Amino acid sequence: MAKHSLDKDKIKILLLEGVHQSAVDVLERAGYTNIEYHKVALGEEALVASIQDAHFVGIRSRTQLSENILKHAKKLVGVGCFCIGTNQVDLLTAEKLGVPVFNAPFSNTRSVAELVLGEIIMLMRGIPQRNAVAHRGGWLKSASGSYEVRGKTLGVIGYGHIGTQLGILAETLGMKVIFFDIQDKLPLGNAQQVHSLEQLLSLADIVSLHVPETPQTQNMLSKTEFACMREGAVLINASRGTVVDIDALKDALQSGHLAGAAIDVFPVEPKSNSDEFISPLRGLDNVLLTPHVGGSTAEAQENIGVEVAGKLAKYSDNGSTVSAVNFPEVTLPQHSDTSRLLHIHHNRPGILIKINQAFAEKGINIAAQYLQTTSEIGYVVMEVETHQADTAFEQLKKIEGTIRTRLLY
Ligand SMILES: NC(=O)c1ccc[n+]([C@@H]2O[C@H](COP(=O)([O-])OP(=O)(O)OC[C@H]3O[C@@H](n4cnc5c(N)ncnc54)[C@H](O)[C@@H]3O)[C@@H](O)[C@H]2O)c1
Ligand SMILES: O=C(O)[C@H](O)COP(=O)(O)O
Asked: Which reaction does it catalyse (predicted)?
């Protein structure tokens, strides 16, 4: 069992945005009992107050860990995004501060694909507007603008974990699937890759976005792209709000060029369930608006809690950074008879030599050494005999270029 230079009950874990109880259970079972739990995202001031003495922080998509916030988090050792997206974290700043960021890359993908599948059917039948009219006492019984999905073409933009699953599910309903991705991807089922966004938009009856938020995907669909879409086509966005130019979408819907849309993510989202949702799309009957719930199912949230909490506990216990999104990935075996030292440094030539020299001068024998780097930082993990661990730790702290170092007994 790993022993820490800091006792586990002194390691503060801040969990925000109501991450699933399964996360708390995993951390407590691993011996981490100093957990500050909030059901909501914190405002900037409260976040700064809570994060400044936290060693780990767990968030979902609402909490912005900006450069400013991260710089207040002087004790921060690791970040867990209990979701897929990591765009809410300033990953480069975290990396430079020696803070790995972990996420759950798969656990909610099936939930998103299922929601989108349901929305495809609802939109193709014109259900959002029939539902809205019925709520106002109207009765829109008509086959006009109502279609089966069988035989229709689904265009998937971003053929990753969600896009591929959606494609397979859509094919089971008899749909034809085409996709556009910046990488060459293995088409699953009978799906076909097309080689330009314009081609996809001109062929698809339903367009569904599944790309991450990046500089390239910012307003990826705007006025010109909507004009490329087929008359009467529908759009689904359950990726990120910044990917669609919402005003241009509103125009395309109001002009009747697009028959409908289902939007789960927005450029600006309410910070809590008690804040007002403001969007130009409010009041459009042919638009399904959902409050960023694509991944919000009991199954997904429980699995994410277990997955991300497990990664945080593992990094804290033994230094493993496997699947960190901004950090050199080091896979580590369990250590028992030795002490383990973790050293994060600026990636400059000669640091490993300096460490080895400093240890040699003190007669410290290195039992094992693992190193990985990115262009910004290096992460070296060493095992030494326990009676030499404190001396080794003191030597490591003095190495020029050190960002942070930790000792696991
Ligand atoms: N609504 C929700 O609750 C919810 C839940 C989970 C994920 N998401 C969002 O969905 C996104 C996709 O999730 P995923 O698991 O499928 O991710 P993924 O990384 O598995 O797939 C993303 C795909 O997009 C492609 N891509 C990237 N940039 C592109 C571009 N400019 N043009 C075309 N293709 C591009 C990538 O090559 C990749 O194949 C996530 O990044 C997240 O933001 C939303
Ligand atoms: O990135 C994700 O996984 C989704 O956007 C879900 O985010 P949430 O955990 O805030 O619902």
From this structure: (R)-2-hydroxyglutarate + NAD(+) = 2-oxoglutarate + NADH + H(+); (2R)-3-phosphoglycerate + NAD(+) = 3-phosphooxypyruvate + NADH + H(+)
DSSP letters for 292-307? S-TT--HHHHHHHHHH
Active site residue 292: yes
Of the pLDDT bands very low, low, confident and very high (cuts 50, 70, 90), residue 271 is confident
Pick the atom of ligand 1 nearest to 159's CA: 39
Residue 297 backbone class (left: φ over 0; alpha: ψ -120 to 50; beta: rest):
beta
3-state secondary structure of 231: coil
Ligand nearest to the CA of 159: 1
Strands (E), 136-283: 153-157, 176-180, 192-193, 206-209, 233-237, 258-263
Mean pLDDT of 88-111: 97
Query: Residues 134-161: what's their mean pLDDT?
Result: 98
Which of 292, 340, 345, 406 is catalytic? The answer is: 292
Q: Is 62 one of the catalytic residues?
A: no
Which tokens go with 369?
A: 């050494």
Which ligand sits closest to the CA of 243?
1
- Characterize the bridge pairing of strands 377-385 and 338-346: antiparallel
Q: Within 6 Å (CB) of ligand 1, which residues are found?
A: 84-85, 108-109, 112, 157-163, 180-183, 210-214, 216-217, 238-240, 264-265, 292, 294-295
Place 1 in a pLDDT band, splitting at 50, 70 and 90. Answer: very low
Condensed to tens digits (0 to 9), the pLDDT of residues 20-72 reads 999 999 999 999 999 999 999 999 999 999 999 999 999 999 999 999 999 99
* E strand or H helix at 167: helix 161-172
CB 396 within 8 A of CB 368: no
Contact of 204 with 259, CB cutoff 8 Å = no
Is 38 known to be catalytic?
no
